[in-house]
Amino acid sequence: MTTPDLRALLRAPEQVPSTASAPPTAATPTMPASGAPATPAMPAMPAMPASGVPAAPAEVPTTPPAEVPGLPTTAQPGVFSPESARKDVPILHRTVNGQPLVWLDNGATTQKPRQVIEAVSAYYSAANSNIHRGAHTMAREATELYEAGRTAVAQFLGAPSPDTIMFVRGTTEAVNLVAQSWGRAHLGPGDDILVPVLEHHSNIVPWQLIAEETRARVVPVPLTPDGEIDQDAYADLLSARTQMVVVSQASNVLGTVPPVREMTALAHRYGAKVLVDGAQAVAHMPVDVQALGADFYAFSGHKLFAPTGIGALYATPGAMAEMRPWQGGGNMIESVSFERTTFAAMPHMMEAGTGHISGVVGLLAAIDWLRGFDQQAVAAYEEALMSYAMQAMATVPGLEVIGSAAQRIAVMTFTLAGHDPASVADWLDKDGIAVRAGHHCAQPALAHYGLESAARASFALYNTSGEVDQLVASLRRLQQAGQGAEGA
């Protein structure tokens, strides 16, 4: 049996057209002649398991199309529409509890287009090998795919070079990496780490751990009543003691989009480094790390329509020069003896052991899929959808949305009078609507509003106003059911 043609297996087939895919451009990484194209895909969609998820989307009723005024509701060549994205995402066409799935838990994880699913399957079917250390054909092909993923991430973030990109498991590991590899070398007694109250726990706890070790201190930056970072307080807290400022480009619980560029410039006046948590931002807005001026920028692939367990950390060359190895092992070394070990150049020095190769392949496919849409159109659509949702949710008696920042992504955290958040999520699930309930790994942000938990609906480019209507109708039925129970 002859070895299969890797290019043929990974090429997007003509008989399965993608409404989202775009032809390679100067900004899209292409593979060398000995490798594979930048957008892997299997020739046929794998059959779905017998778990209630049909293999053919048409067999299951779909959610009503979007009706957001002024934006397209059906797919058109070269124009973004939520329906064009939905067609590529198999799981959105399944049922839950006998109802069409309404996925409004995108802040926790996004669903995956078939291009990503097929790319991962194709990699394991035709190109599975370890990377960087093999001289055989499949090792070269896998390495080329992996490094094409690094190039794609660099271009997606507006980074100056692929050499500024380190692969990690996700944002949490990226923050820990910076805290351990940069923080341990540069933090000491009396140094300050400024952390806004709106931050995710993954951007708080690693800094507490390294502060305890180095005798530095974590300084919270307060919020205003509407859920924005208090910029006056931030300016007052900056000082010669400030060594690091960490800030989310978008909050996972309030949706707040802080003025990161301005905050970074101000921190740099004091000689502080800045780490931006981009986990919630990358799927909702164009990112340019050089324009932001950030020293570090981290994101998670699974919030960007890619597999779990993969993410990336960008660092400026200057910041990289100040980082020490975090983990030791294979791949991150130049030479090893019992007398002395020399380390590989960055970014490989921070990538000990075998990386998540298939995850990088999936991330590459996800970025290529997302870049097939007009990103400005996606951002405008989500803004309009959020505006529609805010107006619609205001009609639900007893519902209160948390936070009212002027700049925010499509995240809506709310409470419903008379119902704890877990019971709200359980009720919605019976209608096939997935939202998240709890503290959202942002307890300080909720505590700012006197809350321990809340429900959250978070949107993505494939959500529709019809789904918002279903959410509102279900919540109104819950309130009516509660009133009926009280009357009884």
TrEMBL record:
<dbReference type="InterPro" id="IPR015422">
    <property type="entry name" value="PyrdxlP-dep_Trfase_small"/>
</dbReference>
<dbReference type="InterPro" id="IPR000192">
    <property type="entry name" value="Aminotrans_V_dom"/>
</dbReference>
<feature type="domain" description="Aminotransferase class V">
    <location>
        <begin position="102"/>
        <end position="471"/>
    </location>
</feature>
<feature type="region of interest" description="Disordered">
    <location>
        <begin position="1"/>
        <end position="45"/>
    </location>
</feature>
<dbReference type="GO" id="GO:0006534">
    <property type="term" value="P:cysteine metabolic process"/>
</dbReference>
<dbReference type="Pfam" id="PF00266">
    <property type="entry name" value="Aminotran_5"/>
</dbReference>
<dbReference type="GO" id="GO:0030170">
    <property type="term" value="F:pyridoxal phosphate binding"/>
</dbReference>
<dbReference type="InterPro" id="IPR015424">
    <property type="entry name" value="PyrdxlP-dep_Trfase"/>
</dbReference>
<keyword id="KW-0663">Pyridoxal phosphate</keyword>
<feature type="compositionally biased region" description="Low complexity">
    <location>
        <begin position="16"/>
        <end position="45"/>
    </location>
</feature>
<dbReference type="InterPro" id="IPR015421">
    <property type="entry name" value="PyrdxlP-dep_Trfase_major"/>
</dbReference>
<protein>
    <recommendedName>
        <fullName>cysteine desulfurase</fullName>
        <ecNumber>2.8.1.7</ecNumber>
    </recommendedName>
</protein>
<dbReference type="GO" id="GO:0031071">
    <property type="term" value="F:cysteine desulfurase activity"/>
</dbReference>
<comment type="similarity">
    <text>Belongs to the class-V pyridoxal-phosphate-dependent aminotransferase family. Csd subfamily.</text>
</comment>
<keyword id="KW-0808">Transferase</keyword>
<dbReference type="InterPro" id="IPR010970">
    <property type="entry name" value="Cys_dSase_SufS"/>
</dbReference>
